[in-house]
Amino acid sequence: MTPALEIAGLTKTFGEKVAADHVDLTVPPGSFYGLVGQNGAGKTTTLSMATGLLRPDGGSARIFGADVWSDPSRALAMVGVLPDGLAMPERLTGREVLTYLGLLRGLAKDVVAARAQELLSVLELDQAEKTLVIEYSTGMRKKIGLAAALLHAPRLLVLDEPFEAVDPVSAATIKTILRGFVAGGGSIVLSSHVMALVEQLCDHVAVIDRGRVAAAGPLEQVRGDRSLEDTFVGLVGSSDTGSRGLSWLSR
Amino acid sequence: MAVALTVPRTMAAMKLAVLRNSMSGQKAGSIVMGGVLGLVLAGGTLYAAFQSGDLLAAAYAVWMLGWIFGPVFAGGGDETLRPEYFTSLGLAPRRLAAGLLVSAFVGVAPAISLLALSGLVVFGVRQSPAAVPVALPAVLLQLAVFVLLSRVAVAVMGLALRSRAGAIGAGLVNGAILAALGQGWVFAVALGQTGGVPAGASAAVRLLPSGWGLTAVEAAGTGEWGRAGLALGALAVLVALLLATWAALLARRAGSVKASARGRRPITAATATGAVMAKELRTWSRDLVRTHQLTFAVAYGVFFAAAPLVLGWNAMLPWAGPIFIIMAAAMSANLYGVDGTELWLTLLSPGAADVRGRQLAWLLAVGPVAAALTLGLTSVTGGPWPMALALTAALLGGAAGLVPLIAVYALVPGIDPHRRGNNPLRSSEDDGAMTGLAYAVLVLVALTGAPAAVAAALYGWAGVAVGVLTGGLCLWGFGLLAQRRLHAQGPELLHMMRTGKRPAAKPGSWARFDDLPKREQIITAVCWSLGAIPLFPQGIVAGVLKVNGTEDRSWFLALHLPEALQWPVIAFMVLLGLGVYGLGLWIPYRRRTR
Ligand SMILES: Nc1ncnc2c1ncn2[C@@H]1O[C@H](COP(=O)(O)OP(=O)(O)OP(=O)(O)O)[C@@H](O)[C@H]1O
Ligand SMILES: [Mg+2]
After folding, report:
1. Looking at the complex, does the CB of residue A111 fall below 8 Å from at least one CB of chain B?
2. Rounded Cα–Cα distance for residues B324 and B396 (Å)
3. Mutate to test the pocket of ligand 1, among A25, A38, A45, A209 (most ligand atoms within 8 A of CB)
4. Rounded CA gap, A62 and A69, in Å?
5. Burial of B311 by CB count in 10 Å (0-12 exposed, 13-18 middle, 19+ buried)?
């Protein structure tokens, strides 16, 4: 079966800093894939290269067999992306953003209108009908970004930190949506720092450490009989960082 | 007391540290370029100090206006240290303002202005040594006035840009002032040819706050100590007032810009291009900075063309439309940069013609107003119809083609709109590059009108056809080039906006100004800013004057020489100017990366 996302040897160097060092990942279709790693490990860099937003120094990325860099129209039509911290059309309202993006993706006008309505009400953004995106809170920005990623009914979702700054109620909604998406045959790759969340949602996981894949595979296989957190700290943490306190804070 | 002093000192040290970092980074290019240009202007001012008080007062008026309007149109001014950085410290507004003021004096622009203001000392020495003790405090107070005026102007604009009415009002006022200045310059040249600055103007430039320092020095030079003290005192009071105003405005800066609360009309487009257009048009009307820019462009065009009405001369009226188009183009020069990282959405839909949508939106935002101005005002004067129509058509198409093209080829990374903090004018960290881009667009768009203008001047109505043709060609061709570039270099452009840095040059291309060693940067900048002097005034203008047999030699070197030497010197000056420009080109060419 063609993998939903196949990353082979993706490499990116910023000046001296190797942000991604021959990253290989295979996301099987229908899987819910979690990407974990410390701050600055290279998750955003890898996901950006896999979705055509950052040109790699080497390596390739394929979405359902279509190469992101040599056949972008076909590859990118099958993916929905939620990047971390990028701007949206800031002077539009949520509904206008979705209308704009739907039309940009070539959807028919009435399809866009119906989907936008549904997404806005499920994500509880329809109360803020008159609010421009520039006035949204951080969590609302994540939600409109997710709505934008889902709008054109992609087969693969690539989500960079989708739960950051999202309140617990909305997080529950998003989890339900994402689980439904996978149950319906879709595939998801998400990055997160929250091990409990990845354990709860994902069936596959990859640990990225300093630009390399430290471990990857089905969740059960990667974590063995330990918790994912222990596995993660064992893989990327140095021996004593976790236990050191701040001397001047103790009284 | 210790704390009172540490706040400004710490802030000044912070600013120095940031400046030092940016000198080794990407902004170094603009800083060097701006610095060299500033030095040339400061040199001119010092020259004026050796000439006459009137000239010096006029020069300081120009410096003051630069301090006020520079930041309004070039990205919000110096914001190395932002008030928001210090909110959590709970400083009293006046302490914060004092600290920020001290740090505001650290920088290239204040240093260069200080040099220009040292002309006061020069002037004082020329009058009488007794004037020097007055000149020294006058220099410092005058600099404080400049820096503070600039800060207050930015703060006032920040407040104005919180409401639509404020944005439009500010656009009208700024347009009127700058247009009057533009025309005032023309008047000055006209008056200058009949000899001397008129008495009214000479009094006026001294009445402006920029002239108070000079007034004090002049008074001291003639022994009028009371008058000198009064002028210095007035400067000190003004500084105190401005500081208090700025402190008050800083306290009100909290809370970011509200978008306009206009009725939201649903998007009715049905195609990708239509959607881009709808988005752009909404951005034009809802982003109050853009509202201000468009209003400014309209006001500038109208007031510039209408100013000669004061003299009972209406022949300039038909040019309001073309001037408006050129200004509007310059204001939207960084079309993609100001949207920041929003570009990722365009990259994800490679099939959608983003450039075309933006071009159409630009035409829809600017075209009707331009057409109305041209048709309305040309019918007031009754012509010349062919020229007005030809230029309007050619410039509209030229601008709608060039703006996106330059925006993708010379993109200046912008700050994402939602991260701009509380200074809505601050759309980029590199305001030097933004200013350069605006001027480049100004000149290039004006050039796209040239063929139509020539045709209309020679053949009348045929010029209109030429204008429509070149306009259409620019719109189509430049748009196509922009679209190609956007597809080919999209990820690089996005990366540039994400990091705020321009990437290193690709092999085979010319070295970028930013990548040159600092010494060569300075040489290149000097070449570019000084090359014009031998080429234009000393070469071409002197030649034209000689052909016309003008008596006035003023500062045209060649005309002061014996007849036999005049043409050779003119030719030498032209060659020298070309050579200097050539050197400015050759340095980056020689360093092209392999
Ligand atoms: N434009 C850039 N220039 C220089 N270095 C960069 C750039 N972008 C990223 N890096 C570096 O590359 C490394 C990987 O960054 P990346 O953003 O991919 O990490 P991440 O895993 O997403 O981290 P986080 O969990 O904090 O989001 C970091 O060390 C970062 O400093
Ligand atoms: Mg990240």
Report:
1. no
2. 10
3. A45
4. 8
5. exposed
Using a 10 angstrom Cβ sphere, with 0-12 exposed, 13-18 middle and 19 or more buried, the burial of residue B82 is middle
A41 Cβ inside 6 Å of ligand 1: yes
- Asked whether the beta carbons of residue B267 and residue A96 sit closer than 8 angstroms, the reply is yes
Domain ranges of chain A: 1-78+158-239, 87-153
Query: What is the Cα gyration radius of chain B?
Result: 25
CATH T-level assignment (fold) for domain A1-78+158-239: Rossmann fold (3.40.50)
The verdict on a CB contact (< 8 Å) between B347 and A86 is: no
pLDDT tens profile B241-253: 988 888 888 776 6
Q: Torsions phi, psi of B80, nearest 5?
A: -55, -45
- Closest-CA residue to A8 (of A49, A60, A55): A60
- Cross-chain CB nearest to B340 (options A87, A100, A130): A87
**Which residues of chain B are modeled with pLDDT < 50?**
1-3, 193-195, 256-257, 260-261
- Residue A228 CA to ligand 1 center (angstroms) comes to 23
State residue B237's pLDDT score: 92
In whole angstroms, what is the distance from residue B406 CA to residue B169 CA? 30
Domain-wise residue ranges, chain B: 2-253, 272-503, 519-590
CA distance B11 to B98: 10
pLDDT of residue B261: 45
Ligand 1 atom at minimal distance to the Cα of residue A47: 18
Q: What is the pLDDT of residues A4-18, one digit of tens each?
A: 899 999 999 988 889
Ligand with an atom nearest the CA of residue A45: 1
The 10s digit of each residue's pLDDT in B145-173 is: 988 888 888 888 777 777 778 788 888 88
Q: Distances from the Cα of A96 to the Cαs of A114, A123, B348, B375, B497, in angstroms?
A: 13, 15, 18, 35, 24
Percent of chain A with pLDDT over 70: 95
Q: Ligand 2 centre from A42 Cα, in Å?
A: 7
The residue whose CA has the least distance to atom 5 of ligand 1 is A14
CB pair distance less than 8 Å for B344 and A83: yes
Q: Is A106 near chain B, with CB under 8 Å?
A: yes
Task: Quickly tell me which residue has 């520079």 as its tokens.
Answer: B70
ipTM score of complex: 0.91
| Residue A238 beta carbon below 6 angstroms from any ligand 1 atom | no
